[in-house]
Design brief:
single chain, 297 residues, alpha/beta, Cobalt-precorrin-4 Transmethylase, domain 1, Rossmann fold, 4-stranded parallel sheet, flat
Length: 297
Amino acid sequence: MKVLVAEKCGFCHGVRNAISVAEKILAPSKTKEKKSREEPAKETDTQVYSLGPIIHNKDVVERLAKAGLKTVNKVEEIQSGTVLIRSHGAAPEQIARLKAKGLNIVDATCILVKRVQYIAQELERNDYKIVIIGDEKHPEIQAVVGCVKDVTVIVDESDLYKLPANSKLGIICQTTESPEHFGRMLGAIGRCSFIELKVINTLCKEAIKRQESAVQLCRQVDIMFVLGGLQSANTKRLAELCKKVNEQTFHLQNWIELDKNVLYGKNIAGVTAGASTPEWIIDEFVKNLEAFDGNSG
């Protein structure tokens, strides 16, 4: 089968940095354990924790877990050791509680996510009511929400009723949203009641490049595959955009999840991947696709 890979896909800088930071802090921890066989260090003293999955990719999380990274969901689960703040960031209140416990904190928050946090705080200092376009359940948004006192999160037009009427609105967006959705929501907000509207573009340029590249590719293929974690916001967005253009679009985490029946009768396959999908997942998927005869069976 002929396989075309999107020009822009896979790890972004923020994800690559988070994984690099994790590997660096895990390496000395494992070395220390090796040297202390006669009197091993207590796990609580050497353990490295991630407050939530470091990125939304189970293969990467499992690999780092084998190297010693323990994922927890609550600050209360950590008593001592080193805590890695994942790429999505953490709320100031969580950071403060970690510091109060005397834990060693290593911050791997994506710089673009930090920018959104700073912008939200600056808007609040200037008396704007903060409005975030995004998913309130996503850790990036939860971290931003934790940076300000009063914030409204809206995902689509059905949430417009939440907007404070006759107010100064400061609009920002989840970094992984598409420009189309951001623009559509701004148009809808513009028809609501407000005194002043200030909009700051907080979209990730790398995410936009991946979206544009994926949409362009899926027009050229019989079947399209979007690789990445099922909980990954940017990967889900890629799949949604591709599905609108090519109905034969499938969001999978890896080759194991593929139902090969969908390949029969297809000649050209397209492959893209979310920003948290490692290169080896992409390479394995492409190699297996190329070896498949889509005209047989």
